[in-house]
Automatic annotation (TrEMBL), chain A:
One of its GO terms (cellular component) is plasma membrane. This is Phosphate transport system permease protein PstA. Residues 312-521 form the ABC transmembrane type-1 domain. Pfam families: BPD_transp_1 (PF00528). It comes from Haloplanus ruber. Its main location: membrane.
From TrEMBL, chain B:
It comes from Haloplanus ruber. It is found in: Cell membrane; Membrane. One of its GO terms (biological process) is phosphate ion transport. This is Phosphate transport system permease protein. GO terms for cellular component: plasma membrane.
UniProtKB/TrEMBL annotation, chain C:
This is Phosphate ABC transporter ATP-binding protein PstB. Residues 1-44 are annotated as: Disordered. Residues 46-286 form the ABC transporter domain. Residues 30-42 have a biased composition (Polar residues). It comes from Haloplanus ruber.
């Protein structure tokens, strides 16, 4: 058919109006939940911290010393040198998160575990590990079973005898010294490992000594300047050393980012200068409900005096128990399913079963804990152990699923290389697969732990008390937890004062803990994804 | 080298060396633990629930008060003190929460999924996805508190006769909570749609809107559907938000009537928490009623999860 | 092949007196060396008899029979999909890892059929090292990469010395001797592949299998690897799969030509294959008429 085929003047135009409207609708929908939550968070933070109750001079002082300098330096760096900007932010973030973590650890040593008991167990563990290594080194030709039994005997003996022996000594060093050795030394070894990997073995010794000296400052110099040695040692070991180590290591590798230090200095310096200034000028800060008293006192019938201390301690203990139970079991199951399991019906059944367990409501897990641990095994209700065990069962499917993903992301060429060298399955898993998958497994476990410490229903089901006045000190003590305390305030003590004061404060503390756990996990994941 | 030595060397079985056996058995036991957990849940819930019902209690050798199955399933009153165990009010409240949260989360979740999979730049995705994860990471008790203290008063300015505890704000927070679940599973399904289909659409002169709505969404329908079921099963099992926000008064309501959302009610999960917050003795009828509701809840969510799994398998097979 | 390294393969549970073991092997080795002579045409180390391989119902190799001589480089060439890599992976039973793969026929390593039921593939792989197509060092330090085989096999001896010697034999020592603690992944592609070769030779295997070891490398790195392979043949039996005919011609003593369908068309001295092949199909393939 002969149509006229001249030159084309124009292709015409297809309307995009509907598409553009649609696009913005979608964006609005995406942002809806995020914005709603942000608004709610602002409200609750306002109720808990009450920034408007502060003296205007207080705001002005901090505006001048902290906010404006930070904005100025931050904006400059962000435009000219984004890498340094991120580095500076990372230092401050690391310091904040690790200080919080150090607070939790310090709480453990002040109220839950005697430093000397901790020291004794660390010593016992070191002796046990040392014994096992010596046996392995001494004679590899001994049959495995002989070595296994010998190692078992050494581990048992040191774990059973050493702690008792150490704690019954008539005289032992001060708590600060004990913690320097038992908390500082392991951290020094970790630092040394990183330094050895980055800078060679020669610098390792220097790094280990430097770490011990810094931590020792808390123990020896702390008392002289009027700081309690236990918290000082812990903060130095768990917050200052890791942050400093991170900053120094990064600068050695990327000296061009040292401008980031300036940003960190402006933020930290501004905080200190601001605090000194408002004190000197007599400006009152906000009458925040989240204050030292709230963090360190127990529940009270009046909202203004109620505190979260036992619940924080309970959450920490629960987290430790849950991690200790769910990590090995979850990773073990994931390793079996990814590395061993033949493709048969049992495997497929386990597979389907795990994804279904992930969808079982948390109250049902609570019932499981109640029925199995309390009614059938006769444990008393509401203890750390059964609370931890119930929450561990609850997050186990999540840990397994995320650990499987991490294992699956280990390239097959690594396994091939190892099997090609004549490694057995376990050798391949231990030496190649697990180390490579570890960051991913850790990320998934942290996220799952975050889920566990936000759970309330299972704890109610197993009979955890709504009100607890002292920290749990053993696995068999009754336990409370932050969300449980918040629930108790919001329901059993439901009244305006609690809604206005204690509950928002509890919510803010809980969310800060959870959001920092989430951000640690996300940072880890991003770093690990960009590494691969 | 003689063949004998070689044979001896090559035929050492490392596979069954003690450390291999030990580690393999440990890993296997870890995997089997999941089956043990499921079995324990099923056995525990069914035996305890059996002790609750008049029909089965004699078989379990239980004496004392029991409840009839018919009364449990058709009764319209839930009053523990009167030993009136009619589950319908609880089910109606759970259903109301489910429908209410679905109205919030399904459209928003799917829209989010389309935006993330088709429109968002990689940078926007890397910011939005963690932010959405936070929505799911906030503890549910906190959502309950938000509903009572901030959302209800705000809604009261629009709807003056809204109760202090009501299903409306409970549904809204549960809906917000499950948006990320709908979004992430639907987005997975949309990402699984092969690019060649999109290319074919653009090649025909379709706009991005045409491609997203006309090609990607229909192609990923089974995935979207699977995300709906899973998210709703999460809403049904959701406990603390509704316990705090929906009140503690059992109340038979019509989930399809918008007016019934203005008052409070007692969903199944909240009823379980309330039972335990009150003082109940192990082995009593109230204690056993807990397991009867638990069993109902477990069966509903299990069936929904399985359906969602089957539907999801379909979309995985398609591409 | 040093004697003290020979004594301990997979010997976790061995309670035998090491001295007598050692002496027994020492005699065996000297006999075997005197019988063959290292440089002239060696005795067969690997002998395949009627090997067939299936992946599910697809036959990947048909009735392969050949003998691989000691201390020489044997090349396997052929178009892609001809089964040359499959055959290589039969020798150390890496095919066991693929569920769908099924091997029939006999494949002897120094007279022992490696597909006998009583053979442990793990023990076999400790005697037959392998270098893969793309470099796959572990995300560990250079030292730990090379010492990996020694550690998993619980070998005795001075690891520092063995690591140094292996890196020297892999022509990598001078480049990395100051950075043994840094990650193997920080090396360039060619260095990584030489690291993988050092890793393969450190436990002193009898045979080294190489699956297109230079295909992912640039020409300079490739020529280094080729020089290295020729040197390795003084001490090891090397079997190399390559798709590059010039490479086979440059470095191998013997060449096996596989053609589509998984059949071994011709196996002979490399010179003969490239200058005067018996088979017309091989000549067509070599001259590029058919690929």
């Amino acid at each position: 058919m002969a149509t006229e085929r001249g030159t084309i003047e124009s292709f015409g135009h297809v309307s995009r109006t509907a598409g553009t409207v649609f696009r913005y609708l979608l964006l609005a929908a995406t942002l809806f939940g995020i914005v709603a939550l942000t608004v709610l968070l602002i409200y609750v933070a306002n109720d808990a911290i009450r920034p408007l109750t502060a003296d205007p001079g207080w705001h002005l002082t901090f505006l001048l010393t902290l906010v404006l300098p930070t904005l100025a330096v931050g904006a400059y760096l962000f435009r000219t040198d984004p890498a340094s900007f991120r580095f500076g932010g990372a230092i401050v973030g690391t310091l904040a998160v690790s200080t919080m973590f150090a607070g939790g650890v310090a709480m453990l040593f002040v109220d839950i575990v005697e430093p000397v008991t901790w020291f004794a167990y660390v010593l016992a563990l070191c002796l046990a590990l040392g014994g096992v290594v010596v046996i392995e080194r001494l004679d590899r030709r001994l049959p495995f079973l002989v070595r296994f039994v010998a190692a078992g005997v050494i581990v048992l003996v040191s774990l059973l005898v050493v702690p008792g022996a150490v704690t019954s000594l008539p005289v032992y060093p001060s708590d600060g010294v004990l913690l320097t050795l038992s908390v500082g030394a392991p951290i020094a070894l970790v630092v040394g490992r990183y330094v050895a990997a980055a800078d060679g073995r020669r610098r390792r010794v220097a790094a280990v000594v430097a770490t011990l000296v810094v931590v020792g400052l808390g123990a020896f110099v702390g008392p002289l300047v009027g700081v309690t040695p236990v918290p000082a040692t812990v903060v130095l070991a768990v917050a200052v050393v890791p942050t400093g180590g991170y900053a120094i290591g990064r600068i050695r590798r990327n000296p061009e980012r040292r401008a980031g230090l300036g940003l960190a200095a402006v933020i930290l310096g501004g905080t200190v200068v601001g605090a000194v200034a408002v004190d000197a000028l007599g400006f009152a800060g906000p009458q925040s409900w989240v204050d030292w008293g709230f963090l360190t006192s127990a529940h009270s019938g009046t909202a203004a005096n109620a505190g979260l201390y036992p619940a924080i301690g309970g959450s920490i203990l629960l987290m430790v128990t849950v991690a200790a139970l769910s990590f090995p079991l979850g990773v073990g199951a994931a390793v079996y399913l990814e590395e061993y399991a033949p493709d048969n019906r049992l495997t497929r059944f386990i597979d389907v079963n795990i994804s279904n367990l992930a969808g079982v409501p948390s109250v049902v897990y609570g019932l499981l804990g109640l029925g199995v641990f309390v009614t059938y095994l006769g444990q008393s209700t509401g203890t750390v152990l059964i609370g931890g065990a119930t929450l561990a069962l609850l997050i186990l499917p999540i840990v397994i699923i995320s650990a499987r993903e991490a294992l699956r992301s280990v390239p097959d060429s690594m396994r091939q290389a190892s099997y090609g060298m004549g490694a057995t399955r376990w050798q391949t898993i231990k030496n190649v697969v697990l180390p490579r998958a570890f960051p991913g497994i850790l990320t998934g476990t942290i996220l799952a732990l975050g889920r566990a410490i936000g759970e309330t229903a299972p704890l109610i089901m197993i009979g955890a008390p709504n009100v607890l006045f002292s920290l749990p000190t053993a696995l068999s003590s009754k336990v409370s937890a932050m969300p449980l305390q918040v629930y108790a305030w919001a329901s059993l003590f439901a009244s305006e004062p609690f809604y206005q004061a204690a509950v928002p404060a509890g919510v803010v503390v809980l969310l800060i803990v959870l959001l920092s756990m989430n951000s640690i996990a996300i940072v880890l994941r991003n770093k690990y994804q960009s590494d691969q | 080298m003689s063949t004998d030595d070689l044979t001896q060397d090559l035929t050492r079985r490392t596979e069954n060396a003690p450390q291999e056996l030990l580690t393999r058995s440990f890993f296997f036991l870890c995997a089997v633990l999941s089956i043990v957990t499921t079995l324990s849940i099923i056995v525990l819930l069914t035996t305890e629930a059996a002790k609750f019902f008049s029909v089965t209690a004699p078989l379990m050798g239980v004496e004392g008060p029991t409840a009839s199955v018919v009364d449990f399933l058709t009764g319209t009153e839930w009053v523990i003190n009167n030993e009136q165990f009619g589950v319908l009010p609880l089910v109606s409240a759970t259903l109301a929460i489910t429908i209410g949260s679905a109205v919030v989360s399904l459209p928003l979740g799917v829209a989010t999924a389309i935006y993330l999979s088709e429109y968002a730049t990689p940078r926007a995705r890397s910011l939005l996805k963690p932010a959405l994860e936070v929505l799911a990471g906030v503890p549910t008790v906190v959502y309950g508190f938000f509903a009572v203290v901030y959302i209800t008063p705000a809604l009261k300015t629009i709807i003056p006769n809204l109760g202090t505890f009501n299903m409306l704000s409970a549904s809204i927070v549960v809906g917000i909570m499950i948006i990320p679940m709908v979004a992430s599973i639907s987005e997975d399904a949309m990402s699984a749609v092969p690019d060649s289909l999109r290319q074919a659409g653009y090649g025909m002169g379709a706009t991005k809107f045409d491609v997203s709505v006309g090609i990607v969404v229909p192609a990923s329908l089974s995935g979207i559907f699977s995300s709906f079921i899973l998210a709703l099963s999460r809403a049904i099992g959701e406990t603390m938000a509704v316990t705090v926000a929906a009140g503690s008064q059992a109340n038979l309501l019509n989930p399809l009537n918008p007016a019934s959302y203005l008052e409070g009610a007692l969903p199944m999960t909240a009823a379980m928490v309330n039972l335990l917050t009150g003082d109940i003795t192990g082995g009593g009828i109230a204690y056993r009623s807990l397991f009867a509701i638990g069993l109902t809840l477990f069966v509903i969510t299990l069936v929904m999860n399985i359906i969602s799994d089957l539907v999801a398998q379909r979309y995985r097979e398609e591409y | 092949m040093t004697d003290n390294q020979k004594q301990e393969y997979a010997a976790d549970e061995s309670t035998d007196d090491p001295t007598t073991d050692d002496m027994a092997i020492r005699t065996d080795v000297s006999e075997s060396v005197s019988a063959s002579g290292p440089t002239t045409s060696g005795a067969p180390v690997v002998r395949a008899e009627n090997v067939d391989v299936w992946y599910n119902d697809d036959q990947a190799l048909q009735d392969i029979s050949l003998e691989i001589p000691e201390n020489q480089v044997t090349a396997m060439i052929g178009p892609s999909g001809c089964g040359k890599s499959t055959f290589l992976r039969c020798i150390n039973r890496m095919n066991d890892m693929i569920d769908a793969a099924r091997v029939e026929g006999d494949l002897h390593l120094r007279g022992k059929n490696v597909y006998d039921d009583d053979v442990d593939p793990v023990a076999l792989r400790r005697r037959v090292g392998m270098v893969f197509q793309s470099p796959n060092p572990f995300p560990k330090s250079i030292y730990d990469n090379v010492a990996y085989g020694l550690k998993i096999q619980n070998k005795d001896g001075d690891y520092d010395e063995i690591v140094e010697n292996s890196l020297k034999r892999a022509a990598l020592w001078d480049e990395v001797k100051d950075q043994l603690d840094t990650s193997g992944l920080d090396l360039s592609g060619g260095q990584q592949q030489r690291l993988c070769i050092a890793r393969a030779i450190a436990p002193d295997p009898e045979v080294i299998l190489m699956d297109e070891p230079a295909s992912a490398l640039d020409p300079v790195a490739t020529s280094k690897i080729e020089d290295l392979i020729s040197e390795l043949a003084e001490e090891y039996t090397v079997v190399i799969v390559t798709h590059n005919m010039q490479q086979a011609a440059r470095i191998s003593n013997k060449t096996a030509v596989f053609l589509t369908g998984g059949e071994l068309v011709e196996f002979d001295d490399t010179e003969k294959i490239f200058e005067n092949p018996d088979s017309q199909r091989v000549e067509d393939y070599i001259t590029g008429k058919f690929g």
